[in-house]
């Protein structure tokens, strides 16, 4: 059917119905924009929620917790420090903080007042007098007096603590357990809960001043300060725990008893290479040295294993008490400070305190003097610049280098010498010549190869590096003086480490103090071992060096750490200090090792600025004490003297065991050995003897035989024998009823005199005791 044609009017009406109006179009456009904006807003909100709830969850959870919870740190127990044998050097014991809840205190006092009022009202209703009324003023006074006495704080401080607007206030820290228990029991008896105790730790150093400069100490916050306490603080400190207490909606902290505790993870413990017995021997000798020679700028010493780098002992004297590190330990220094005007005291005190804390062996540098000649020797031998059989060195008393005259310690000169004699004489011109043979480039190369001028890398803080004249700046005059140890400056540790490389087969090793670290569960988490930096010289060269140093000791025993029956190598040194403020001061040192053919221990002792009027040569000042330490540590380490027939004839007779023998048998035994005897008592059996069996005494010595019980009071005072000839010493000791045995020098020489005696003059010893005499015969070498 044909479509009906629509009129114009009808078409207009239809179009008006089908086509959107302009207003409608605008509305739809606005709706689309709004929808888009809404979608963008929703996406932004969703993204923000995702960021808050997922990405930054931990941050906002912490903020929420901080709002709802109060936190308090629980200190981890700091790890202990032990020596090589398990002796405790530092440990943390449990002590307690005593705290109060001041708001709870007020609440409990108010509760008592309320209870009193109710009792009084109830009693009044019955026409009675109230019982058990507690006077809160009197109770407070009693509590204040008790806390002030037990915690050693003032009553004012206690009263002020009650007024704090807090739920947690520490009254006293580091309270010992017995006191903390008394406090707890007291308040339990009063049925008061506003006070409590919490465990914490306190650092103790059972050995007091022993190894102080190496161990270091902690500050009031328990953080390591100086020494191993600082170096290994991350291991020792552990991980602190937390106590989380709830807070009310208004942010006020709820009573402290409403809390959750997260335990601390205790720190790990250090086990050292140090041996406290060897440390004690070293520190004892340093104290004697400093006292005898009035050493002005302290002395230090190091004992180490030359093959491994393990430090057995390291000491500075005067030391300080680790349990009271801020107190000036040296009596003379403390007296000097006390005499200062008030305006000068503080700076001087701080300087003295910092100085006593400083580990001299690794933190101070000085010219090494003739001990450095071992480095020059090793370098020249390695380069085949010394012919031990054919080379000679002439010393006139000085050597001219580039118009500069440099003298020898023996101004008259040593004349013509072999190298071994030049080394034994410590002849400066000979070593200047050897240094010039090496040349600047080779000398500088070996200087650095021996690790000199750089830190050794020991696991201790505040180590400094030595200084020297750089190769590009060095002149031949500098080279000559450096070759005998006068123009470079080293720490004691640098020097002994280089010395060790010269005698251990040629390897430069890194010294270390911590052997291993054990965590709180008993598991080893760090194990240190030998680190060889490089091969400096060959084993063949090192063997030659050992032989030369052993020859020095055996050919000049009175000026070295010669001990009969032991093979020891060593070299002394005396460095002269000349500055604008210091003139004619010296650094005296001695380095020795044993056994000479296969060294297992090496020791360096250094004394800065001994009184030159008493003595300043290393061979005079330091050697007797180095010998003393070696005599003590070698048997302790399991090394015992080995004598041949000539040795036995020279040193004397070993006292036999005659105790419990009949008097006739004892007399016959002693007579057969060429020994004299003196009988004390009227008995027929020897009950005691002096010296004891095994003691070596000179031929013709006297053994005291006690045939009756003694009270141990047969004592005599040791005379001063220094400077006496052997015959004079023998006569003097005989008068006092004492025996002797000689080491060093020649006992038959009429010029030999006593340099050192094993028992200090004035000491009380049992009659018959043997005094070891160190004899000196010949000129002093540095």
Question: Could you characterize what this model shows?
Answer:
There is one protein chain. The protein is 38% helix and 21% strand. Strand 2 and strand 3 (88-100) form a beta hairpin. The chain has 782 residues and is α+β, with helices and mostly antiparallel strands. The longest helix is centred in the first third of the chain and has 34 residues, at 22-55. The strands form 11 sheets. Strands 2, 3, 4, 5, 10, 18 and 19 form a 7-stranded mixed sheet that branches. It contains 25 helices and 33 strands.
Short summary:
The protein is an alpha+beta fold and 782 residues long. It is built from 25 helices and 33 strands.
Record field, number of beta strands? 33
**Biggest β-sheet description:** 7 strands, mixed
Helix residue percentage: 25-40%
Strand content: 15-25%
Regions with pLDDT < 50 over 5+ consecutive residues? 1-19
Q: Measured on Cα atoms, how large is the radius of gyration?
A: 41 Å
Distance between the termini: 141 Å
Q: Indicate the multimeric state.
A: single chain
Mean pLDDT across all residues, rounded?
Answer: 87
Determine the structural class based on helices, strands and strand pairing.
alpha+beta
